[in-house]
Amino acid sequence: MRMLAGFDAVVLVVRTVLLYLGILVALVCAFDWAVRSRRVNPFSRTARFFRGRIDPLMQPVERVILRTGGTPASAPLWALVAFVIAGILLISLLQFVGSILGQLLFGIQDPAQLPKLLLSWAFGVLRVAILVRVLSSWLPVSPYSRWIRWSYVLTEWFIGPLSRIVPRIGMIDITPIVAWFLLSIVQGLLSIP
Predict the structure, then answer these.
(1) What are the residue ranges spanned by the domains of the chain?
(2) What is the pLDDT of residue 49?
(3) Mean pLDDT per 10-residue segment, the chain (193 residues)
(4) What is the pLDDT of residue 153?
(5) Nearest CA to 150 among 135, 131, 129?
């Protein structure tokens, strides 16, 4: 349990660092936006300092924005959005690893619970696969893409027969929703956390 407490402390430190770094990135992006949109004189000493130091960091974001038809003045805003999303993903990943670590330590302490733990993980993987399958169906991505194919391989044995039973509602296929609920029911019947 000491290991979990240490991991929680690391996650707390990462959160705190990301918060303060996020505040700093927000201030820098706000000033850079003000310089780019000419709300601040772009020839002042501070603006020249920022343009010399910050613009090279913004160039990758700016290139993507220009390719999609945006304006270079919006690069700081998108850089801030990217930082926030990356921070959320990092914290979520750390929490996920912490929960897996906690479950694993619990399973090691009580070996009789290991089968339930493995089944719980299997249900979790199936849910993620269903979610990836649904989200990829909304995007112009081939189901045979190497990034998406695994979700179809893991769920087709379950969703394929269900799609022949469950009727469509107009153009909407509710089979993944039914599969999600059936997984929840089976997991509850097996009393798997």
Answers:
(1) 1-109, 111-193
(2) 82
(3) 80 93 91 83 82 82 83 84 90 86 80 82 89 86 86 91 87 88 88 70
(4) 92
(5) 129
